[in-house]
């Protein structure tokens, strides 16, 4: 059962490894990778999301239950992390990184993994999952920084953070075009499709290039806390809610996949901008990305047995 999942995810992991190799041996300039990631985040990946959502045909997929499971499981784990804060031996800034590591996800890994596991249907469901979790996770993280970060955004600041998120904007545009029946204009559709096709390999190369393995031992405890939330607490919560709501098949698989993805590389930027622990965030991103290569196949195999994915 694990073998086919590993084979499906292998291209994703190989592209990440290639990105690490290219960063160390060929394209060594930080500015190259920083600007390439900006290109992916602000143009290529939004293009993929708009195209996929605007042209998706979900058929009989339980769209409402899928989005509800993702949203509720994310909120429940976020509330639990905040409730457990008083017993965590970390500073407020470090807790903000643990929190982001627990509730955010990496779309650069999620969308190609969804496509590898379930084909075009998986890509459409993955884009739908992004539309559910991107606003949920971003609202939760901004609110968390308002409580624990050095920067204290007001309500207007929270709205600005959301309005500037290109993935959230792309999700809203794609859903509007689909649900309204307008679709994509003939001249725009192939452009967005081309941008989307470029986003997946470029995004995975950037994930690999951002990996870092040197970290002080003092960062070990909060890194392990974030991994426990991301790779145990969140997927188990998602499984429980999925069973309660009757999710099965690819929809259940996408829920479990997205709730076990490593945290987003953009978490580092948010930590730096809003008073979090940016060095710890960089370590958490790298550690989760590497561990996900081993954890994802095991979690998805468990999902096949428990949810009939």
UniProtKB/TrEMBL annotation:
The chain crosses the membrane at residues 39-59, 66-88, 123-146, 167-188, 200-220, 232-258, 278-303. InterPro entries: Mem_transp_PIN-like, Na+/solute_symporter_sf. It is a multi-pass membrane protein. Pfam families: Mem_trans. GO terms for cellular component: plasma membrane. It comes from the Bacteria. It is found in: Cell membrane. One of its GO terms (biological process) is transmembrane transport. Gene3D superfamilies: 1.20.1530.20. Its main location: membrane. Keywords: Cell membrane, Membrane, Transmembrane, Transmembrane helix, Transport. Belongs to the auxin efflux carrier (TC 2.A.69) family. This is Transporter. It comes from Elstera cyanobacteriorum. The lineage of its organism: Bacteria, Pseudomonadati, Pseudomonadota, Alphaproteobacteria, Rhodospirillales.
């Amino acid at each position: 059962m694990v073998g086919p999942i590993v084979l499906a995810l292998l291209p994703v992991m190989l592209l990440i490894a290639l990105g690490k190799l290219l960063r160390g041996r060929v394209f060594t300039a930080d500015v190259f990778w920083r600007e390439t990631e900006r290109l992916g985040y602000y143009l290529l990946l939004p293009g993929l999301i708009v195209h996929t959502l605007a042209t998706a045909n979900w058929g009989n997929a339980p769209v409402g239950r899928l989005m509800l499971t993702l949203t509720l499981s994310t909120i429940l784990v976020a509330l639990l992390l905040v409730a457990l804060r008083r017993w965590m031996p970390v500073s407020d800034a470090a807790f903000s990184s643990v929190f982001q590591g627990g509730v955010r996800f990496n779309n650069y890994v999620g969308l190609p993994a969804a496509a590898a596991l379930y084909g075009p249907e998986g890509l459409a469901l993955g884009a739908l999952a992004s539309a559910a979790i991107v606003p949920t996770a971003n609202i939760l993280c901004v609110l968390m920084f308002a409580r624990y970060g050095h920067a204290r955004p007001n309500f207007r600041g929270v709205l600005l953070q959301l309005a500037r998120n290109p993935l959230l904007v792309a999700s809203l545009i794609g859903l509007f075009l689909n649900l309204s029946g307008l679709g994509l204009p003939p001249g725009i559709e192939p452009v967005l499709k081309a941008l989307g096709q470029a986003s997946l390999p470029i995004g995975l190369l950037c994930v690999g290039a951002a990996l870092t393995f040197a970290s002080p031992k003092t960062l070990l405890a909060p890194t392990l806390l974030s991994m426990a939330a991301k790779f145990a607490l969140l997927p188990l919560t998602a499984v429980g809610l999925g069973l309660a709501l009757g999710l099965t098949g690819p929809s259940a698989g996408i829920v479990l996949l997205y709730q076990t993805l490593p945290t987003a590389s953009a978490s580092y930027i948010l930590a730096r901008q809003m008073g979090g622990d940016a060095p710890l965030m960089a370590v958490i991103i790298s550690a989760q990305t590497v561990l996900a290569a081993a954890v994802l196949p095991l979690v998805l195999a468990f999902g096949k047995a428990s949810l009939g994915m």
